[in-house]
Structure formats: C-alpha cells, structure tokens
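Hypothesis: this fold can be encoded by more than one sequence.
Test: take the structure tokens below, design a sequence, compare later.
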C-alpha cells in the first residue's frame, strides 16, 4: 500500500512514493517513508501498533498515516552548509554518526528544500513539522554553529595580528636596507 503525494502544476520531478506499507504473509509489517525505513519500535507515532497487524489495526495504521507529517529535520541553510562543510555528517564522541545531510527532497510551508540535516534518532514521522529527536538536536547544531563562528572570528583576529606583526618587521627590514647598513643588520635580524 502506497501513498503518492499530490503534485502541483507541471513538476519536472518524478513521482515518488511517500509512504509504503509492506504487510507480509504472517501479517508482520514494515513502513518506508521515501527511502527511509521507519523503525516501528522507536517511532513514537507507531509504538501503539502490534508487530503483526489484523484488519482493524491495519485500517487504524492507514488512517493514522494520513494525518502524520514527514519530519523536516533541520532545513535552516546555515546548518545544512555547516554539516556539508563537515563532509556531510557530524560525529558523536564515540565516532558514530550523530547527524547527517539527507538529500531526500522536503516540502515545508510551500517551499521545496533539496537537503536537510537529520539526527541519527530521527523518527521520520511526526504529528508536527519535526519529530522530537530533531527538535531537541537543534540546540546542538546551534551550539556548534556558534562555536564554529567564534573559532572563525578568532582565526581572523589571529591572522590580522600576525599580518600586523609581519608588516612591522618588514618595515624595520626595509628601513635598515634603506639606511645603507642594512645587509649586516638584516643578517642580525634573521639570526636573532
């Protein structure tokens, strides 16, 4: 059973299946949202459904899916650019991926976004625009962005300081050269 989102106007993008529910012969089931397999055990929206469906629970699942939204992740272009600069992923302290760029197109408030940042724990489905995991992770992205900004400002300040020190030394060297005694004193500058 699939759900294909409505296409407005003349879209040049191919149709994509938004929801794909697979019910096996033993009535076990799985759910895919675009290219993502949704963990029925960790998605808070689906935790009330049994491992094996019956006709009633299948109908409830399908009607619930109609009302759910696909989590947008973090669409903010500053966060997307920051994560792209980190090779498309953010690693946690243990080396596992904490968040990464997801190139699945996302539609939000009538705008289409080609990339978003999703946490490793993103539930993909939500009753609001973002799942709880992505909502909580925004604070981490903000902190990283602020730290990156401070680090960048410190580097620029250090570079300017280094340039001014270098310019002072260069002026002293040029002054010595112009005085006629520069070669000897120039050597002393390099030795000292």
């Amino acid at each position: 059973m699939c759900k294909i989102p409505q296409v407005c106007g003349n879209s040049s993008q191919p149709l994509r299946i938004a929801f794909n529910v697979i019910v096996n012969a033993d009535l076990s089931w799985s759910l895919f949202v675009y290219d993502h397999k949704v963990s029925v055990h960790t998605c808070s929206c689906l935790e009330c459904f049994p491992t094996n469906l019956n006709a009633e629970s299948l109908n409830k699942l399908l009607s619930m899916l109609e009302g759910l939204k696909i989590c947008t992740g973090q669409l903010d272009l500053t966060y997307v650019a920051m994560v792209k600069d980190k090779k498309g992923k953010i690693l946690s302290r243990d080396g596992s991926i904490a968040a990464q760029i997801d190139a699945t197109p996302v539609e939000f408030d009538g705008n289409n976004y080609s990339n978003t940042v999703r946490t490793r724990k993103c539930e993909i489905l939500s009753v609001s625009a973002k799942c709880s995991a992505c909502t909580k992770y925004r604070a981490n992205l903000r902190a990283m962005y602020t730290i990156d900004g401070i680090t960048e400002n410190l580097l620029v300040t250090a570079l300017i300081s280094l340039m001014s020190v270098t310019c002072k030394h260069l002026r002293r060297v040029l002054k010595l050269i112009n005085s006629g005694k520069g070669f000897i004193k120039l050597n002393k500058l390099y030795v000292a």
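The chain is about 40% helix and 20% strand. Residues 77-144 form one domain.
Hypothesis status: open.
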